[in-house]
Amino acid sequence: MTALDNYVAPTSLEQAVVQLQELGEVTILAGGTDLMPQSHAGRVKFKRTLMNIRRIPELRGISREGDEIRIGALTTITEMMAHPLVREHLPLLAQAADHFASDQIRNAGTVGGNICNASPAGDTLVPLMVLGAHVELASKPDDTLFRRSMPLPEFFVGPGKTRLAPAELLTAVRIPIPPKGFVARFHKFGTRPALDISAISIGVAGVLKDGKLSQVRVAFGAVAPTPVCGCATEEALEGKKLDAATIAAAAKAAQDEVHPISDVRASAWYRKEMIHNMTRRILEDVSANH
Amino acid sequence: MPETIQKDSLIGKRITKLDAPEKAGGKTRYIQDLDVQGQLYGKILRSTRVHAKIKSIDTSAAKALSGVHAVITAADVPWQRPIGVAKDHFPLKTDRVRSLRDEIAAVAAESEAIAEAALKLIKVEYEDLPVLSDPNDSLKPGAPLIHPEPHGASAKHDHLKQAQGIAYAGKPDNIAMTFDYQQGDVAAGERESDVVFEDTFHLHYVTHCCMGVSGIIAEFDSSGNLLMYSNTQVPFLHKREFAEILNMDPARIRIIQPPIGGGFGSKLDIYPFEPITVFLAKASGRPVKLVFTREEEFLASPTRQPVILTLRSGCKKDGTLTFRTVNTLHDNGAYTSWGATTPFVMMQTISSLYRVPHCLYHTKAVYTNNPYAGSFRGYGNLQATFAVEQHMDMMAEAVGMDPLAFRLKNAQDAGEVTPQGMHFKSCGLKECLTTAAEASGFLAKTKANAAERGKPGRFKRGIGIASMLHVGGGAKIYPSDGCGTILKMDDFGSVTLITGASEIGQGSETVLAQLVCEELGLPMSAVRVVNNDTEITPWDVGVHASRTTFIAGNSAIGAARKARGKILAAAGKMADLNPDELDLRGSHIVETKSGKVVMTLAKLLRQLHFSDKAELVMTSFYYEPPSKHQDKHFKGDVSAAYAWATQVVEVEVDTDTGIVRLLKVTGAHDVGRILNRLGLEGQIEGGIVMGQGYALTEELMVENGVVRNPGFRDYKLVTAPEIPEMDVRFIETMDGEGPQGAKGVGEAPAICIAAATANAIENATGVRIMALPFTPEKVYRALHAARKEAA
Fold first, then answer.
1. What residue in A sits closest to B658 (Cα-Cα)?
2. CB B451 within 8 A of CB B587
3. What is Dmax (Cα atoms) for chain A?
4. Can you say whether residue B615 is alpha, beta or left, with left for phi > 0 and alpha for psi between -120 and 50 degrees?
């Protein structure tokens, strides 16, 4: 039994950030698919106030704003998967959503929640990172609404820990519309096809021109306390012709740069092996299909 | 009224389970849905230490919490008696805890939340003891004892109870049970052998994962009679054992089974939560309901025996098997359940699945501080078959025979009496082997896959075969292996079947109803089944050993035939016809030859009822199979019939990841005769998936006595997309003793999947893995090691 003193359900962003500022100790409820099991298992303690943000219209919806797609924090995984803008410009996200937990969880779980939960194995995080996503944060420390933006990789501090300030709300994620020649791959590696927590995941994106990759972004999930960028792997690929030697070097770089742990899902050794093999596989697929 | 009715039969038809509409519609009331007026909610405080002395327990704060009606520890029930087959397990722990699941205290309160809050207020002081988590360590000289013999005043006090075999006696070593079996002379067998293999196989922890978690409601009436709503598979044995544990007159104990959400052997034993709930009901004077959480179900319900099995076996150049020597070490966990007797079944597979002249078999079941193992569908047979059927492939290859020919050469035939004393009156093993092999294209695929092995490519395909033998006509373990039936006809031509056999989701009530309807010429809609109340139903030993269709089926047929005799005799008299020339069809009495309708069954039953003799048609029958107990050397024909099966498994191995995908399972099952085809298909398909989980995905990870994955997130049951294509063929051997010729098949389909999968992985990759489960990491490691060795 967790003692909650207070429950609030603001109906506008303005109201929410004011309440956050005033109430201080607040647990935020969006889809609840992480919060409820975690609190039930005793891993997360409810703070004094529970804030249900589901009635805030500004947090919903997917739209195109200039050269960016903006996905509201309350967008469910199912909505994201089905949305025409996502399917047209960011098919990688739709594909990742298709491997996300189960239908029931996708119907309730939100993009903002998946980001704020900051699990190293969070299924949308690696694809969002390689797509160059920024998070959009809002607060109202004084009389004016303050908004800031942050590249996603910088947002994560540790498992369940982010740079979100105590009175701040994640309102959306913004993703630049990919340039011409953009290729992207996401591989969630679990031991079964459904309802699995990934043992590792890999995202690779870049612009492929004349067989060469540039503007390469690589990210890995479940190999560190947060989803991480694969800088050495990026370096092994950037500007290189995507041939067998490059692929082998990139796979090796990936294997060498991750430092996973052993847990019930996999040993560190196996995770490193899979990072190697899956990176190679993804790159071979890119090379074979473009 | 029709003029004539021709003969029709229900046997072999696809009949929907009687309980299916309620279950599919979400209307079935499981124990979770039952509430008794005035009930309290029970919760158990479990140990936080794996092995420790209990220094003190302080329940004062819990007792003081508002809404709490009873808080009990072992001190409150000094009269409690040990449970289990070895009487080594007190429901509430007295001076020490031996595993992490151990029960220290229990609370009855007005809500689950209050009961949970009360548990948090109980303070326990422990003094840690060294932990034994590897059965090999338990056997080392000087190993700490898990059940040291009790000493001092209490031991003396228990003298009388010890004489009665119901007191806790302790053990001078960590060996819970041993089993030794011998036939022939293995040394002579080895001398005749041209090929000998010896390998050690490691079998892991899995648990039943019943969709319905454990639960019970216990209440005493004002005369002290105990009523339990219980999910047990063995209500009559439970009644007896509860009487013993509670020191009650068995006549005062009544067990009602609500619909049970899965058993698979997990409900063969009494577990501490059951007597504890009774203690709480006694202490509080109120009915108490206790239902496990899913996490509790993972931690505190039984597992399959983890086994380390060393098999040495040999054959001659021509493929004739010569001998088998088996040594197994079973991790019993901290206490002993019925499951410790799984060697009974294991030695049958080792001695008698194929003809082996010389066998030597030793088992030690040893105590550790791990979760304690119980009974689980297959009862040791999955473990034994895993080893035996891998060696069959290895020997076949060594003598240059194909796996099918090698098996056929050594397969049993009908009429065989094995050295262990099993008499195979019907035996479809050879037909199972050839049918499964032909239907799957086994021989051609074996060759083609092996040829592909060395070539580049990430995905490798493999095909593997394995067979199994299991009791299919009951198992005479308990003094009786029987079942009673009462049939009651009403005035309208309907029948109530009152059977001792429990329904645990396996479809027994449907097949029993079907057998009765077949005898009485009734449609399925004319039958009701009562099968869940010890106060009403006749005795039955319980649901285990794939026995219900066979034993309860023969019992139901016996009662139905008596009713049929009565009805036809009365009809003959009434219509002035020879009863031998009458038949029951479509709820009518007809002339057998012409099918001419004589009268409706309802009319006849009413005329009997309203006659001057006022006769109601009620019959009863008790069936005891013609099987024999094993002698002290484990020899004897324990089952009235034996079931056989061969399964061929096709896999795809991803050599980049070690992921093994089951593509197809082709099964051929000697079922005696098909009764309810739909029910049979359901049993076989469900069993295949359970076998698949055992082979590939399921593992209860236990480290230093701690279960690391007590939930479905990390305990991986097979999910829908992983389920393979299945082609299941039935071999009808028409068993002479079976009901309409049928044999029991409840356990059969789960037994050889793991063995066949091991053989298929070998066919795909050339790598043989002798430890389960075949998780991606384990398979990848094996492939990686093989690649390294080759390089």
1. A191
2. no
3. 62
4. beta
User: Would you state the CATH architecture of domain B307-475+630-790?
Assistant: 2-Layer Sandwich (3.30)
CATH 3.30.390.10 fits B20-26+482-623, yes or no: no
User: What 3-state DSSP class applies to B60?
Assistant: helix
Beta carbons of B657 and A1 less than 8 Å apart: no
Contact present, B750 and B470 (Cβ < 8 Å): no
Say whether A1 and B721 touch across the interface (CB within 8 A): no
Instruction: Give pLDDT, residue B16.
Output: 96
Q: Provide the shortest C-alpha distance from residue A35 to chain B (in Å).
A: 16
A135 within 8 A of A115, measured Cβ to Cβ: yes
Q: Which segment of A50-64, A182-196, B406-420, B600-614 scores lowest on mean pLDDT? A: A182-196
- The angle at the Cα of B558, spanning B552 to B560, to the nearest 5 degrees, equals 100
Smallest CA–CA distance, residue B403 to chain A, in Å, is 30
Angle, alpha carbons B259-B261-B265 (nearest 5°):
110
- Is residue B159 over pLDDT 60? no
Strand partners, A148: A137
B99-123 pLDDT, tens digit each: 999 999 999 999 999 999 999 999 9
Q: With contact defined as beta carbons under 8 Å apart, do A172 and A116 qualify? A: no
ipTM: 0.93
> Which of chain A's residues have a Cβ under 8 Å away from the Cβ of B693?
none
Q: Which residues have C-beta within 8 Å of that of residue A55, sequence separation ≥ 6?
A: A9, A10, A11
Cβ pair B645, B467 in contact under 8 A:
yes
Neighboring chain B residues of A264 at a CB cutoff of 8 Å: 701, 708-709, 714
Nearest CB to A193: which of B116, B713, B722? B722
CA-wise closest residue to B636 among B481, B523, B435, B454: B481
Residue given tokens 């009495």 in the structure block: B589
For the stretch B693-751, pLDDT in tens is 999 999 999 999 999 999 999 999 999 999 999 999 999 999 999 999 999 999 999 99
Q: Does B116 touch chain A (CB under 8 A)?
A: yes
Residue A193 with chain B: CB contacts under 8 Å: 719, 721-722
**Are the C-beta atoms of residues B623 and B553 closer than 8 Å to each other?**
no
Q: How many CB atoms lie within 10 A of CB A73?
A: 27
Six-digit token string for A280: 């190679």
Q: What gap in Å lies between CA B727 and CA B442, rounded to an integer?
A: 13
Could A1 and B719 be called an inter-chain contact, meaning their C-beta atoms sit closer than 8 Å? Answer: no
Interface test mutation site (partner B, options A189, A273, A280, A281, max chain B beta carbons within 10 A):
A273
Cα–Cα distances (Å) from B722 to B485, B750, B758, in that order, read 41, 16, 17
Q: With the C-alpha atoms ordered B132, B138, B140, B144, is the resulting torsion angle positive or negative? A: positive
Q: What confidence tens digit (pLDDT) does each residue in B239-252 have?
A: 999 999 998 999 99
Q: Distance (Å, rounded) from C-alpha B12 to C-alpha B674?
A: 5
CATH 3.90.1170.50 location in chain B: 40-165
pLDDT on residue A1: 42
Instruction: Compute the distance between CA of residue B131 and CA of residue A74 in angstroms, rounded to an integer.
Output: 49
Is the Cβ–Cβ distance between B202 and B782 less than 8 Å? no
Residue in A with minimal Cα distance to B782: A270
B40-165 placed in CATH 3.90.1170.50:
yes
Q: What is the pLDDT of residues B449-481, one digit of tens each?
A: 999 998 999 999 999 999 999 999 999 999 999
Smallest Cα–Cα separation from A152: which of A121, A117, A128?
A: A128
